[in-house]
Every structure is written in C-alpha cells, then in structure tokens.
Amino acid sequence: MTSDPDGAREFYGRLFGWTAVRSAMEGSEYLTFRRGDADVAGMAVQMAGSPAEDAWSIYLAVEDVDATTRAARVAGGQVLAEPVTIGSMGRMAVVSDPTGAAVGLWQPLDFAGFGVTGEVGSPVWHELNTLDYPTAVAFYETVFGWKPVVLSDTDEFRYSTIGAEGAMVAGVFDASAHLPAGMPSHWQLYLGVADVPAAAALVSELGGTVLQEPWHSEFGTFARVSDRTGAMFVLGSVDQPDATDQPATT
C-alpha cells in the first residue's frame, strides 16, 4: 500500500528491475510487479486521507477464506477486512492475530500467487516479529494448521520456522526484547538481492532509508530498509548461480 504510486514504480523498478502491469479490472488502480514474466508483488494506492501508513503486507494462501476468517476470530484474532471476491482472481480478507500483527488471507481462483521466490528480485522470506511469541505460535497452529519447527528457544533468540524441511518459507521471531518501544507486532517481507551492501546504498540513492545497516549471520547478509514513503522491508542475500553450473549453449 503506497501513497506515492508513481514514486514506488520508479523506486522498485530501479532497485529490483521490476516492471509494473496494471490490473485488467476496469477502474482498478492495482498494479502487479513482475520480475521478467513472473509475478512477484502487488501495489495498491492508499485512499486519500487514510490514517494507515504505507506498508508491505503478507498474504497467506488458504483453501476457504470465509472459514479461515471465522477460525481467526474464534482463536482471538480480529477481522480487519471481511472476505471479498476480487474479480476472477480470488477471495481475500485481512485479519490480525492476538498479538496485533495484521496478515492477509488469499483464496486463489485464477491467481495463485508468486511466480517466483527465493531468487534475486523476488520474495525470499516472510517473518512474523511478535511481542507475544507463545500466543502467536498457538494462533497460527490453530488457524492455519502450521507445525512450527523450533530453531532456537533461548531468551536471547527464540525462533520457529514454517515449512517442510529444505523448503521453509516463513519464521516466527520472539521480538519482545528487540523491537523499538511502541512498534507493534508485524509481518516482515524479505526481498532477495545479490549484494546487500550495494542494494542498501542504492536504496539511499533512490530516496529510501537504511533503517539497519547490513549485518551478517549464519543465514546470510541482511539490511532493514524502507522506501521513499516509509514502507519497510528487508534486503536478503541470495547466492548467484555459478557460471560453471550453467548449461552450455551452442
């Protein structure tokens, strides 16, 4: 969601090489970002006067958005946007978990979601930073049937991953001792780049902000940044294929 669609098109186009394609729905201002021919993200325009901040949102695929919305409410979440059908693409809703983190629900019809992940210029990770880790984990287990795998369970670093072994797609992080005062629980998007320091420098050149300088961990190199209007995301390093691994051409 952005209050500056033209600026966002330029920013993400230059940062990730994305192109923007307008929705085929008549009167819609929704744009789909593509990396090559693959869909990687979407952009909607904030309504004038909206009190909401510009932000990236995470959508979780569900089989039945109405049933999942009801389950979220029963499990202590709140419904922020009731289920609605988006043309022939699918049905969506937005809920918040009991710790206050908003997340979208998507029941696909014609549109299944990401065309590519885990590569440069595409989503590489999704992460819930929560102020109440036990409550959050229980909610997603109940509502989505997740079976989290505990990566670490210490006061310094408490984290669970979601997804099959070798194909993990998301994580739940106990951020109670790490988030700045006043920052609520939230979902966070990671986008892949080949060179995190260079991409972070480009963010600044394009008018964005580096919120946390690049850091290294056993999982890769990362930097927390925001675009020109404050929508936050994380740059994550992606290994480039070795040229010797590429098929020979004739």
Could you walk me through the main structural features you see in this protein, from its secondary elements to its overall organization?
This protein is an alpha+beta fold and 250 residues long. It contains 4 helices and 15 strands. An 8-stranded mixed β-sheet has the order 9-10-11-8-12-15-14-13. A 4-stranded mixed β-sheet has the order 4-7-6-5, covered by helices on one side. A hairpin with a 3-residue loop joins strand 5 and strand 6. It is globular and about 45 Å long. The termini are far apart.
Care to give the gist of this entry?
By secondary structure, the protein is an alpha+beta fold. It has helices spanning 5-16, 65-74, 133-144, 196-205, and strands spanning 19-22, 31-35, 38-43, 59-61, 78-86, 90-96, 102-108, 123-130, 149-153, 158-164, 167-174, 186-193, 209-217, 220-226, 232-237.
Tell me the strand order in the biggest sheet. Answer: 9-10-11-8-12-15-14-13
What does the largest sheet look like? 8 strands, mixed
Radius of gyration: 18 Å
The global form is globular
Secondary-structure element order, as H and E?
HEEEEHEEEEHEEEEHEEE
Tally of extended strands? 15
Q: Helix segment count?
A: 4
Topology of this structure?
Blueprint: H1 5-16, E1 19-22, E2 31-35, E3 38-43, E4 59-61, H2 65-74, E5 78-86, E6 90-96, E7 102-108, E8 123-130, H3 133-144, E9 149-153, E10 158-164, E11 167-174, E12 186-193, H4 196-205, E13 209-217, E14 220-226, E15 232-237
Parallel strand pairs: 4-7, 8-11, 12-15
Antiparallel strand pairs: 1-2, 2-3, 5-6, 6-7, 8-12, 9-10, 10-11, 13-14, 14-15
